Predict the structure.
Amino acid sequence: MPGLDVILAPALAPDDLVGLELHFLDAIATRDTPPVLLIYASPGRSISIGRYHLFGGAPERDGINVIRRLTGGRVVGAGNGWLGVALILPILPARTALLSEDTARLRNLRPEQVINRYARGILTGLRALGIDCFYPGRDAITFEQREIAMCTFEADASGATLFEAAIAHNRGMEELVHDLERIDPDGALSCRMYDAASATKVVRELARDVSFDELAGAIASGYGSSLGETRRRKLTAIESADAQHRGDALADSNWIHGPAAKQTLTLRNRIASQLGAIEAAVALKADGTIEAARLSGDFIANSPAIAELEGELRGRPLDLASISDAVAKTFGDNENNNSNFFLGAGELSNLVRLIAGVN
């Protein structure tokens, strides 16, 4: 079983974080670096939007910053009061590297099963501190049915997986709701209402202050228990420099606005989803076939699959049969597509109906 490098970064700037994740995705895909567990905190008060959220607002307002992840999923808290976890490892075999189970048996894991396995280190670490939390499914880790952490993951085209989690250290989802109202007064970003009955945080459950070192150390030990040998180390000068370079380049590309900066599409359909809401937008040619398509909102999927699906839709008529064929080609359960995943719509038929505009 391969070892795992563990890096603690108590003050990692958001742009440097994304740059560092991009660096490790490439280095791990080419086997230049062993799998990495990065446990970090970032300065400032922030909200973290997913890869597929539409956002056209200001990146900062009233002292609150907006950052965009490489992974999909819901809007979550970031910065002061949140502990971040990023586990970067090879995709093959079938998103199960480092796991002790029989990989042949796990070739077609559902997304929530992948999250379950990669979240085990967090569960173990929090339980060691005295918080008997669980992963009930989808994207949340809970304690007594109150959400204490959110999980998501990405499998990129280079051949590596990024699993991310945001742990409510001394700020939680109930504070996020108020921050979101200030940064996004028009309500473009969806988020359910949270209170003390539906969300919690580490310091609340332990009834004491918990330092970054204590919480990060517990999580690191938890992954050591579930994934095997770990090695603590610091970032190298090359890693830090490349992270800054990549992060700056991504920021200069208007990454924060993401899909909102691209072509405006005309036809829209929106559904309530397992994680919040998902929207499909298309532009049609004069002959009624699809010129371009875009999915946005609260879902978790590998970015190559979303690009593949949007490509498959181009040139097709906007009807159920044609859309169903495109979705099946992209996400169908067969040995050629077992690395593609989509979490948030439930059955794939719901995704088909969303794109086709059938309620």
Residues 14-29 form the longest helix (16 residues).
